[in-house]
Design goal:
By secondary structure, the chain is an alpha/beta fold. It contains 18 helices and ten strands. Helix 7 packs across helix 8 and helix 9 crosses helix 10.
Length: 512
């Protein structure tokens, strides 16, 4: 194998605020994580954590039970994966906290549920209670990630505005004060646990302010950058700044999915590979062991109110390539061969959106289904937007007014029927996916998956169906194609086609 890894710790991020897997799927996928080179998990439970007592309103109906959380931890230990829980404590509190009316008074800005008001004692009490309940189910955790990223609108609340009018008060001081309070609680109540924080709120704070705040002695920052063209030199300078400010240990964070668009269906593998390879360059710029480890993030939703992006099983090939590249210091041909072997893939494509050939890893049937759905949408879009006969003689204007030359219909129908045939054969793989879906996906995915799938495939299928239906109406009496095809399309026109679009959506994702 080529090279070696500068990262002793390689954590896979599980974002459970969308499409949370059932425990049975973890039993299948954790061994693969270990085989690929991961030795830890960063688990972001959000509302899937079984909060109790006065925090019960934070708990979703589909939340894991305490026994299920313990089973997840047991499975992780069995596969030599160290677990680090993540609890948001400042920004991104819309996820499952500040959206509730009973907690809305704790917002920094009343209109926006993003950020806690750092001046409210009740806010700190809430955060402390959340941390304590999570840590109760994670005894012995060496790290606890307390979030603190993207604290939007900080300083814009009325109380903050008044506070900032006082001399020497700044947003940076306000941010550091809350971080210090949260981290101090973690260390006081759980002295063997070190808090981690995302670093974006620290980047623009001068070294002397960081040093004077006391925060560097309490937390370990996680430098995150998910871009394929990240500034290696700039990240190296940032590491040096943090070291001079007093931070003893640093972490990096890359991405294997969920970082290229809120409605992305398939991860662009080459993009994420380049991101992780550049983090190897960053690590090489500093002294050995400057970066304690790297977290490969796999975001499932951009925030609590957005649609789902790439599902976990769809992102497994990207994760496999990124993990193995970090482990071996690059993505040479021997590394590619090992990834293909571990995934049961004949040919792995990194430069496009889709991998070629069948795979056998847990959830590979979902990847196949999503890929086929994208092929369907691409084929229909190609026909409707680029085919000269459709755009020139079969446009929506022509179809509405039935002003279509019969000769042109003969050019349009074969391609339309071909696309429609693809849409019929495509959901045929759903029964095999159902065996993966029902035991492994929590019921919370029902609506997000259905709406996401309809958003991706329903417009294409519906447009194709309308083209075929219109062509049948306008071409009479003698069809230029074989009569069985005519019968099939006319059946579709009557509305009793065996796989109308709602049924396709229901078959593929409604039961998730």
């Amino acid at each position: 194998m080529s090279g070696s890894s500068p990262f002793k710790m390689r954590f896979v991020h599980l974002d459970l605020k969308g499409a949370p897997p059932k425990v049975s799927y973890f039993s299948e996928i954790f061994p693969l994580f270990h085989a690929l080179g991961a030795n830890g998990l960063l688990i972001e439970y959000e509302d899937t954590f079984p909060y109790e007592g006065h925090l019960g309103l934070l708990r979703a109906q589909h939340a894991y039970s305490p026994s299920e959380v313990k089973e997840i931890l047991r499975l992780a230990t069995l596969n030599e994966l160290e677990v680090v829980p993540l609890v948001q404590t400042f920004g991104h509190m819309e996820q499952f906290v500040l959206k509730h009316e009973t907690l809305a008074h704790l917002r920094e800005v009343a209109l926006f549920p993003n950020t806690l008001n750092p001046h409210e004692a009740e806010c700190l009490a809430l955060v402390r209670a959340m941390i304590d309940q999570v840590m109760e189910l994670h005894p012995g955790a060496r790290w606890l990630h307390v979030g603190c990223d993207e604290v939007y609108y900080l300083g814009e609340g009325e109380t903050s505005r008044q506070w900032l009018q006082q001399e020497q008060n700044t947003k940076a001081k306000l941010c550091l004060s809350h971080m210090r309070a949260v981290a101090s609680h973690v260390l006081a109540q759980h002295p063997t646990t070190t808090p981690l924080v995302w670093d974006d709120m620290l980047r623009d704070i001068p070294e002397d302010q960081l040093s004077a705040s006391g925060v560097p002695q309490l937390v370990e920052p996680v430098l995150w950058d998910y871009g394929a063209d990240l500034d290696v030199h700039g990240r190296a300078l940032l590491m040096e700044k943090y070291r001079k400010s007093g931070f003893l240990r640093l972490w990096a964070a890359s991405a294997f999915k969920g970082a290229t668009g809120p409605s992305q269906a398939l991860p662009p593998i080459d993009y994420h590979l380049r991101n992780n390879l550049q983090w190897l360059q960053v690590a090489a710029c500093g002294p050995a062991d400057t970066l304690q480890g790297i977290i490969l993030t796999g975001w499932q939703r951009y925030d609590h109110f957005s649609v789902l992006c790439e599902l976990l099983p769809v992102g497994i090939p990207s994760l496999a390539i990124c993990l193995q590249s970090l482990l071996h210091g690059g993505f040479a041909e021997d590394v590619r061969a090992k990834v293909e072997n571990l995934l049961g893939t004949v040919s792995l494509e990194t430069t496009g959106l889709m991998s070629e050939g069948a795979s056998s890893f847990p959830g590979s049937d979902i990847l196949a289904l999503v890929t086929e759905g994208l092929h369907l949408r691409s084929s229909v879009d190609e026909m409707l937007q680029r085919d000269r006969y459709v755009t020139g003689w079969f446009s929506p204007y022509h179809r509405r007014r039935k002003l279509i030359h019969p000769v042109m219909i003969q050019h349009v129908q074969p391609q339309a029927l071909s696309c429609l045939g693809l849409s019929v054969s495509w959901p045929g793989g759903a029964p095999s996916c159902r065996s993966w879906r029902l035991p492994c996906i929590m019921s919370s995915t029902r609506m997000p998956w259905r709406s996401g799938w309809r958003r991706m495939c329903t417009p294409a299928w519906g447009s194709c169906r309308r083209c075929c239906r219109t062509s049948v109406r306008l071409l009479a009496p003698g069809p230029p194609w074989p009569s069985p095809a005519l019968t099939w399309v006319r059946t579709l026109e009557r509305g009793d086609f065996p796989h109308p679009c709602p049924a396709v959506s229901s078959l593929t994702f409604a039961s998730c």
